[in-house]
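Good morning,

Attaching, inline, the backbone tokens for the sequence recovery test we're adding to the shared suite. The designed sequence is right after.
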């Protein structure tokens, strides 16, 4: 992307370009402090690119070989970091050593055309080709991991950089001759070379903007998730549950059930074994709820050991079966691995959403009342509305109360 001489740009923005890229690099590095993990590598990549643009202005023409070697080192490092940043951003396998090996191979290949068999034309073509080769595999590896529109914009910008780099190689090879060094010099001082360099700079700038946009979207999503979810269990919190709950203002009232549950005698667990152990018990309940309840269930931790679940389009009797499965699995769990030698149980209250409800909290209030009755009945119970208490006698620990 940045491996052609920049002396033809010095009268225009060659001095400004390294500063712009350095600025982007420092911005990306600073973003990692607020949750953008790949910002370090985007930043190092742009700082390397800025160095590559600055080298011809720092070293004089009598250091041409040194310029060529240093420029290729920093540009290969830049493209390596771009690819690594992309893989890290999308949580893809980094393949660090194969990519390092490719970068070393690329550098040795360019050195061959600098020192052993000097050929400016092939050296420039190989340099740009290997830059593209360092970045292109990362695009392929993350293509199925896109999460939102800004991710697609970022991948499009990275793909455009690779395409532009290879286009520049094709133009160079088609407009120069392998038997004429003068043709290469003529090309490098031509309007075509200027346009190629200008396009490379523009694509580098657009890539930086795409990275910033994607980083902003990613950080906002992280903060939104943190605002709506419980940090201990990853379940929804009260705010998240209210946002995920159905809209009762719609013309057609929602259907479904609310489960209200908590851990029996949880204070004793904290008092006897400590809050760290209590947290593990809470996490275990959350995992069971995620495993045993339908995918469309809205599961929340309302605080402490209290859990609330809304399951759309489900009957109370069906929800009672699911809750009882959770209750039985939790009661049967062996806690010896965390140093507890006692059984821990849960209780649940279940209420259907009713036509007269003004919000989900009306159903939550009824489910909370049934949970209280489960506690009164001895705990380790599921109390469901809609059936007579006597009808549940044959099913131990599963009780029902009449609808009010």
């Amino acid at each position: 992307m940045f491996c052609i001489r920049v002396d033809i740009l010095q009268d225009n923005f060659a001095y400004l370009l390294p500063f712009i890229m350095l600025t982007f690099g420092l911005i990306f590095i600073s973003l990692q402090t607020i949750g953008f993990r790949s910002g370090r590598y985007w930043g190092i990549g742009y700082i390397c690119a800025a160095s590559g643009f600055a080298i011809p202005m720092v070293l004089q023409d009598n250091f041409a070989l040194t310029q060529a070697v240093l420029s290729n080192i920093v540009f290969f490092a830049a493209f390596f970091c771009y690819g690594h940043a992309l893989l890290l951003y999308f949580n893809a396998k980094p393949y660090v050593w194969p990519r390092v090996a490719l970068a070393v191979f690329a550098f040795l290949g360019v050195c061959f055309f600098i020192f052993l068999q000097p050929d400016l034309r092939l050296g420039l073509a190989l340099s740009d080709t290997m830059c593209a080769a360092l970045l292109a595999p990362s695009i392929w590896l993350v293509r199925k991991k896109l999460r939102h529109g800004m991710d697609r914009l970022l991948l499009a910008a990275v793909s455009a950089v690779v395409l532009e780099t290879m286009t520049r190689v094709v133009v160079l090879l088609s407009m120069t001759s392998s038997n004429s060094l003068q043709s290469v010099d003529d090309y490098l001082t031509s309007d075509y070379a200027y346009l190629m360099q200008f396009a490379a700079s523009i694509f580098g700038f657009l890539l930086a903007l795409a990275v910033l946009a994607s980083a902003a979207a990613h950080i906002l999503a992280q903060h939104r998730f943190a605002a709506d979810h419980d940090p201990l269990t990853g379940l929804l919190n009260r705010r998240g549950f209210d946002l995920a709950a159905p809209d009762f203002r719609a013309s057609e009232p929602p259907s479904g059930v609310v489960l209200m549950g908590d851990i029996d005698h949880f204070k004793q667990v904290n008092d006897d074994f400590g809050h760290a152990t209590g947290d593990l018990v809470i996490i275990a309940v959350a995992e069971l709820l995620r495993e045993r309840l339908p995918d469309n269930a809205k599961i929340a931790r309302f605080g402490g050991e209290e859990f609330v679940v809304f399951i759309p389009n489900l009957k109370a009797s069906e929800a009672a079966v699911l809750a009882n499965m959770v209750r039985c699995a939790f009661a049967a769990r062996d806690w010896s691995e965390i140093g507890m030698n006692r059984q821990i149980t849960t209780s649940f209250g279940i209420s259907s959403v009713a036509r007269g409800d003004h919000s989900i909290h009306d159903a939550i209030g009824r489910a909370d009342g049934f949970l209280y009755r489960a506690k009164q009945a001895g705990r380790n119970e599921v109390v469901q509305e809609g059936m007579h208490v006597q009808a549940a006698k044959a099913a131990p620990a599963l009780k029902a109360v009449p609808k009010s």
